[in-house]
């Protein structure tokens, strides 16, 4: 299965909800069937699916599955809470669950499961359209930075490509749009320790698309910027606060600091669904702490071709594994939404949400009751 497949999450001819198991990439490309709420919750929790938009879409289907079993108000509330608890930082998870819950709340129990399934499908369609638009807006910002006679040099952190979303990607959508337009582009790919989403997933995507790229250690990015070998940095996001602060994969903040010190624009690809107007600033964002074993051990392909895990640290050495960090709004050149770029500021965030509301979309932090007010 190629990374150029139209969707990362889809329903096949037999009615099965399918995705790919991202914990096995890039060496094994295995289909994963999501057959119920528990499958969806487990896939999110174990990072078989990851990336804020894709997490939201899978959670929406998880809630639809749950309503097939128990469509009562109590069943809806329980399933929503269970799915919400799988990962705390990415706001798209809550946004998608709230969107499905609002769709079915006023319906009789017998009609809820089908309505939830249709709403989950609509979330997927909306995500694909949103990301395509982000890619075009991002490409328009990045293309003028290309130096004459050279490929545009873009640096990215973690994986914000098509497999982190339903389709196209967020940050990488801009790279794909540039390539489609014939703009020569080269991507510096941070490895993104400790789970190596850059080295494993972003490099796999870019290679499959024939886009020039080079994997670097996370600590090499600052040197490349200082040497003038990076024209722009573009990353995705898991949550953007009301003041424009950005939560993204741990290590993003350091890239933003290096970019600021070298006068390199640092852009954030930001679907409206990733904006949380109910969170005042980055200090209020809960940062997920994951298993320390992800730091003390590393998994990869062994000399015989099979997957092996090796220990990196001395026996008994403790490890701390925050999954995300927060980049202050002052370091962000723009938030690239599906409606176009906006300032990473309270005013810019309000403007983006206002434009989205005028077009009928719901911001991530607004519940149905808040909207009524």
TrEMBL record:
Active site: 238 (proton donor)
Residue segments, region Disordered: 339-373
Lineage: superkingdom: Bacteria
Catalytic activity: 5-deoxy-alpha-D-ribose 1-phosphate = 5-deoxy-D-ribulose 1-phosphate; 5-(methylsulfanyl)-alpha-D-ribose 1-phosphate = 5-(methylsulfanyl)-D-ribulose 1-phosphate
Pathway: Amino-acid biosynthesis; L-methionine biosynthesis via salvage pathway; L-methionine from S-methyl-5-thio-alpha-D-ribose 1-phosphate: step 1/6
UniProt-annotated site: Transition state stabilizer, residues: 158
GO molecular function: S-methyl-5-thioribose-1-phosphate isomerase activity
Catalytic activity, EC: 5.3.1.23
Keyword tags: Amino-acid biosynthesis, Isomerase, Methionine biosynthesis
Residues holding substrate: 50-52, 87, 197, 248-249
Single GO BP term: L-methionine salvage from methylthioadenosine
Family indicated by similarity: Belongs to the EIF-2B alpha/beta/delta subunits family. MtnA subfamily.
Known function: Catalyzes the interconversion of methylthioribose-1-phosphate (MTR-1-P) into methylthioribulose-1-phosphate (MTRu-1-P). Also catalyzes the interconversion of 5-deoxyribose 1-phosphate and 5-deoxyribulose 1-phosphate. Part of a bifunctional DHAP-shunt salvage pathway for SAM by-products.
UniProt-listed HAMAP family: Salvage_MtnA (MF_01678)
Descriptive protein name: Methylthioribose-1-phosphate isomerase
